[in-house]
Amino acid sequence: MIPDGRTPVMVVTGFLGSGKTTLVNELLKKQSESLVIVNEFGEVPLDHHLLEVTEERAVALPNGCLCCRLRGDLEETLIGAAMRRRRGDIAGFDRVIVETSGIADPGPVAQTLFADQALARDFKLGPIVAVVDAADSENRRSAWDVARAQIAAADVVVLSKIDRPSARRDEVRNEIKGLNATASCIEASFGNLDPDLLQKSGTDHVFSGVAAHAAGIHSFTLKFDNPVPKDLLERFLGVLVELRGADLLRVKGVVALQGHERVLVQGVRHVFDRLRPVELPETGLVFVANRVAKGEVEALWQAMSKLKGRK
């Protein structure tokens, strides 16, 4: 198998004031070969000036939200950076960090990377990291739909401000588990942590299939007893997206196909990346979904499998 040499794009999300820029600055101290893209919601860009990185490695996307009209700007920025890197116009970088606005849903960023074929030549989705303030739950509850979407989409959740007397670690951990039982949860004081803890995305390891419920969001795993036909898997995903795409917050996993091949499945709502061969253990499909029952997904798979088997 040809190694995937594309540049990973880490998405750092989290509600307003959670400590995203502090975390990114700490990451840059340990991983200087990074291109940073900062999305701010406001007329005057500021946050990218707070990053401890050279100007050529920091790009601001001001006055908008990456989950809305700025997705095109993200595409143009990444494609332009790849071209300038090839020409030697800018210093090389081996990763991209996208710091989203505090009111942005990270899902559409992943959709952009999955759907744009020009981007897919040079970039791939890395881990989605959600920063959660352990000391001020009320702040994110002021826009709870956005905050819970950020947590539900994450591969890794970083608990910030754990040094404060008002921090409620256990309470916040339970809150996170209720929204996303598959995400790992780590603590960081002033953003200081081992970057390797953030590098593994949800498809790099076997997930727990334990369901956890909160406001309709839960997680579950669809297991396959035997290797599956590739065309059947693609049609199944297509039908599932057509029926419930808006509620599929994230779908990810490694599936064994007939013919001794394993493929990586990654999707966010209505958009899925193409199936890519990988050398990883089979995990089944892990769903983080909103009001989608595991039984419904299993029933759809069984029905399509039976239809496929008829002559």
Largest beta sheet: what is the strand line-up?
3-2-4-1-5-6-7
Portion in beta strands:
25-35%
CATH architecture descriptor text of the largest domain? 3-Layer(aba) Sandwich
Structural domain tally: 2
Shape: globular
Q: First CA to last CA: what distance?
A: 34 Å
Radius of gyration: 19 Å
**CATH fold assignment of the largest domain:** Rossmann fold
- Total of DSSP H or I helical runs spanning 4+ residues: 10
CATH superfamily of the largest domain: P-loop containing nucleotide triphosphate hydrolases
CATH domain class name of the largest domain: Alpha Beta
The secondary structure category is alpha/beta
Chain-wise SSE layout:
Layout: E1 7-14, H1 20-30, E2 34-39, E3 58-61, H2 71-87, E4 95-99, H3 107-115, H4 117-120, E5 123-133, H5 137-141, H6 144-152, E6 156-160, H7 169-179, E7 184-187, H8 196-199, E8 217-222, H9 230-244, E9 248-257, E10 261-268, E11 271-272, E12 276-277, E13 284-290, H10 294-309
Parallel strand pairs: 1-4, 1-5, 2-3, 2-4, 5-6, 6-7
Antiparallel strand pairs: 8-13, 9-10, 9-13, 10-11, 10-12
